[in-house]
What we know:
By secondary structure, this protein is α+β, with helices and mostly antiparallel strands. The chain has helices at residues 2-24, 27-47, 56-101; strands spanning 105-121, 127-144, 150-163, 168-170, 177-178, 192-194, 199-208, 212-215, 230-231, 234-243, 250-265, 268-281.
Amino acid sequence: MFQRAKQIVRKVLRFYVTCLFRAFHGKYWRVDRGTGVVSFSVASLNFLGFIPASWSDFANGLPILFFTIVFVLWFLGHLVAGPYLLYAEELDRANRLDEQQKPKLRISARDAVLDDGYTMETQGGSRQTVVSQSSQVVVLDVVNDGMETLTDCTCRVMGAWKMLEHGSERMALHGSVVLSWSRDLERPEFSADIEPSDTCVAYVAQLHPGGFAWIFRKLAGLPSEYHQMFGESGRYHVMLQFKSSLPNPLQLLVELNVLPSKQISGHVQRANYSFSILKQRAPRLLPQDFKE
Length: 292
């Protein structure tokens, strides 16, 4: 108990010594320069005869009086305000540090090609990878720009609309659909921890050369009403929600535009599409975000 009280007294004394030093620091020379200006002005007026003889003693003592009053008032003002100023500076420094340490999400949209195959290694140590199948997908790169680990990150489809020439048609969703952080359809990962400066990939949709786009989930793990999500060529708006250890979720509105497939060589077709983020907001999107 005595040691605790001793530490508190030491901290209080250090705090007020710091306030006293800050109140005094730099004040003397500034007031002294001002006093020099007053002294020069008084001497000039006295030399030119503008000061009566009866006021001569008062005028000669004016620089000292000016220095005393200004220095004392300035010193006392900063001494009284010192604790608050020191507290405000420490609070601002703590807030900046806390803001730097908070996890921050940076999300970008891109397309990717997933190659499935196998790798052979020769006796000499060289390796050759044979690609048996390639599939095109659209993904979201989620980067943690903070200084703390983001835990239990999930990405859900909250709503989807097929955009028509006039208006839109909402897809029937009975609850949200959790997306996977794994490129392996057979072994999905519905939660992820993102280390500082690390990137995790949320897989949104798989595209087929025939001009179809389907949600990136294994059919066996989805209710049948979700098996047709998204579908044939067209423009789709999808509302996604990211939830993690951050206090508030982050919602995004993305656009997936699936076009008729394009011929690249012979009978080989390639999916033709565009994928972009239209809006993002925390904790939720606003009604005006859905207006085109």
